[in-house]
Amino acid sequence: MAWNGDAGDALGRSTFQVDLDAIARAVYDSGAKVVGLQLPEGLKRLALPLIEGIEQATGAKVVLSADPCYGACDLVDDQFDPLGVQLVIHVGHSPMGDTEPRIPTVFLDAPSRLDVGPAVRDSLYKLGRGGRIGLLTTTQHKHALRDAKEILENAGYEVSVGTGGRRLAFPGQVLGCDFSAAKDVEHSVDTFLIVGGGSFHATGVAMSTRRPVVIADVERGEARTVEEELDLTLRRRSATIQKAMDCHTFGIIIEARPGQRRWKLAQSLAKMLHDAGREAVLMVMRNISPDRLVAVGLDAYVNTACPRLTIDDQSLFPMPLLTPVELRIMLGREGWDDYLLDTFD
Amino acid sequence: MAWNGDAGDALGRSTFQVDLDAIARAVYDSGAKVVGLQLPEGLKRLALPLIEGIEQATGAKVVLSADPCYGACDLVDDQFDPLGVQLVIHVGHSPMGDTEPRIPTVFLDAPSRLDVGPAVRDSLYKLGRGGRIGLLTTTQHKHALRDAKEILENAGYEVSVGTGGRRLAFPGQVLGCDFSAAKDVEHSVDTFLIVGGGSFHATGVAMSTRRPVVIADVERGEARTVEEELDLTLRRRSATIQKAMDCHTFGIIIEARPGQRRWKLAQSLAKMLHDAGREAVLMVMRNISPDRLVAVGLDAYVNTACPRLTIDDQSLFPMPLLTPVELRIMLGREGWDDYLLDTFD
After folding, report:
1. Which ipTM was obtained for this model?
2. What DSSP character marks residue A178?
């Protein structure tokens, strides 16, 4: 299928491959006349060329969801439904096995065009003595997992790729909220190598498995160990828990969307706080932002939605923001040595 | 019912009266075990005392909606539903006759405790020669409408209070998106007086009726005419429309919630743009913020959701944001002299 020059150019220039043909085919085959489109933040600027391409090829009307979309946990069926959307195209994330969309949804990968070779080869200098490597990656580099495995095996390493839980879409997948593929093989590896992803994934694996972790930074073409970042993160979280100890009123944040909803957990945390003589307010919200929390005016907040936000974005919030695990530590129900990242696995 | 000291104090200190007894009674009578609570931004800090009061009196579990709530058009049933909410308490806004909540909802006023007398008496110096006044107010000062009418009549004015359309909850109500109570009586008055509200309400009435408008600023205890503000607003909007004329790609923003959804209008605007040789992307979103629009990367945006945001908040957005009316003017389908505020009436 030949696309108009502009659409082709914009898509061709992107670091990520978005298969417009596959999308158009999926829309055409479904017979849908109204289609919803979800894109991760970094690909939102491809909305115009994609939409024009789909409309040109199929005659369907396309509506973009313009709210932030951080994963397959971020579905917006409740917004698409009233507009008569019959099919959702979700680009850039793998589906989550434990989250069922209400509207028929096609999940399409947006693989990175970048060559993982340089970063993986650089990691050979960082992996250390142990001969057994646990290999992990994100959706964007899934297609390169085999190449990465080969590079490691050719260098004499024994490589394991873990299977993990229902939320994951493929073996070796790591999510900001799910490290089960790492835990699956932690006892039979010496070091983990994550191809792609960011510091949060790496420190998450390190905290979940107590194994050394090396991250192959595909964009920079080099690898690094994560001990310093891990240490910094742990010290920051420790300081936040300390601050929260002096707080009296707590907001427990719940996200209503299926991929991030932990209502029972939120209620049990509220009870835990009441038992400890604190005050707790259950709060449901769409987008967790500092202004919203300042408006409600409580001393501290516990986030039962996306675990990554709490750890990565603390500096944006003028008050302590805790994960459920950290609240338990704060209330003395768990020790600091038991500290683990909050996960959905 | 005697409340604990803290709840009573916090509620007692607020500029707005929130009747905790009435709320508790409504919850108790409904038999609801899980209750949702919505509060306007300025009253979000009353969440804790209100929730404690309700839970203490009824044993029901309460969940606060912590997203911004600007009116009865801002319902969050889709977020309350998955949590099993059986009753919603919506404080501070009157219901909108054209918006039906999905979950049983009790709308409770939060009347201002401030005396409207000083501001209304000050307006007597600003009202001008004509003897006929159209009286308007917002939900917060609804209870003081009769007093205001009396002050005007005692001073010799003839006062009319318009009825308006389905969206309104009481005669004389003015909303940022609905000026029908003003239009109802515009031909039989010389000047409008708005008790309370802000510049946007006042300029909205001025633009909708082409009559002089005086605003009785209850918080300051004084009144002012709005010609300068109106003039500034019109000049700013004219400049924005000019800028938009040079734009090629447009995003048409749709809000999915019942109170703000104009899907058909959005689609017709997209067609209008295509016919004029421009490119258009239909976009549904929850919270319209500058970052979100920058991410999609279009030249300009047309907002079919809350009209007030487009006019009041333009300075926050680095690109032109237009109302549907302004887009029509930009495309030459209406003249500048026909300029009216975008409304839902």
Report:
1. 0.90
2. B
